[in-house]
Write a structure and sequence with these properties.
By secondary structure, the protein is an alpha/beta fold. Helix content is about 25%, strand content about 20%.
Length: about 300
């Protein structure tokens, strides 16, 4: 007797963690759904918005029509660190064969990010697929917020750019985040939208629960380093799709927590300081015109 098994199609669970982001989250959710997302079917993924203890529970207006329809879920027993919410959602809520983690719900997605993550996973078994991160504004927000950049300035910047009607406009009003400042061609420190297969997640693990500080400390850097440096790693970098951070008084981008404080928590967990990861990457293109200015960074060195 012979049995035939059909491989289950790739289905991506997009997990976006938010906390007190009534201004920022609607833009992020819009950017994660169709029709903003291009070259992808709503049937190929789900969007899970995890509200990690917002003072006022987050809701979407009934007039907002997104596809797939986001599931807004409030975490039971929310913690100051988002790692518990993300791990809980991946284990108990997500239905996907693959999981996309977005630890910071203030980060707008580029418009082909979902399609190209799915494409990468279809081409490379057990890939760790990652994006680089940008900050909205003319400089990284740790600097710009000391020079008058705030929510009001940013709202006008976004509106004047033509986004979201013109998705590529967001590239023109952004710069690389500090953790991505090396550009595409050298190792970076973290990704704010990365995806893995559930099989790989079960093998390597989710976010480390030792990171209990507000904002998660270096949790996102730790999980990134753990995956990109795993034995036999297949790391796929998307060359044109990125995330774009909205200013919101976040722990790291606002300067509320300096690196020595974050590193102290890291040392308490691992008994050593944080070390920048070094790894090889496979690049998935093409480089779209809106991303050219970012692709040029680091080429002349």
């Amino acid at each position: 007797m012979s049995f035939f098994f059909r491989k289950r199609r790739t289905f991506l669970s997009v997990i976006i963690c938010i906390h007190d982001m009534a201004r920022e989250a609607p833009r992020t959710i819009l950017s994660a759904c169709c029709p903003y997302q291009k070259n992808v079917s709503p049937e190929d993924y789900e969007v899970i918005v995890v509200d990690n203890g917002s003072a006022h529970p987050f809701t979407l207006r009934d007039s907002e029509e997104f596809s797939p329809k986001p599931r807004i879920i409030r975490v039971p027993n929310p913690q100051p660190s988002p790692v518990f919410a993300l791990n809980w959602a991946a284990t108990h809520v997500a239905r996907g064969t693959h999981i996309l983690f977005a630890i910071d719900g203030a980060r707008i997605f580029s418009d082909q990010l979902i399609a190209n993550m799915l494409r990468a996973h279809s081409m490379c078994t057990d890939a760790f697929v990652y994006t680089l991160g940008c900050h909205l504004g003319s400089s990284v927000q740790m600097i710009s917020t000391t020079q008058g950049y705030n929510e009001e300035v940013e709202d006008k910047l976004i509106a004047d750019s033509g986004w979201p009607s013109t998705p590529s406009a967001i590239y023109n009003i952004s710069v690389f985040a500090g953790s991505s400042c090396n550009g595409f061609w050298k190792p970076i420190l973290e990704s704010n939208a990365f995806s893995v297969s559930r099989r790989l997640l079960d093998a390597i693990g989710g976010y480390h629960t030792g990171f209990i500080s507000p904002g998660g400390g270096l949790a996102n850097l730790e999980i990134f380093a753990r995956y990109v440096q795993r034995p036999g790693a297949k790391n796929v970098c998307l060359l044109s799709d990125m995330t774009f951070h909205q200013v919101h008084g976040g722990v790291a981008t606002s300067g509320k927590a300096q690196f020595p404080t974050l590193d102290e928590e890291y040392r308490s967990i691992f008994k050593r300081g944080y070390l920048q990861p070094f790894f090889d990457a496979i690049y998935l293109g093409p480089i779209r015109s809106e991303a050219v200015k970012f692709a040029r960074i680091g080429l002349a060195e």
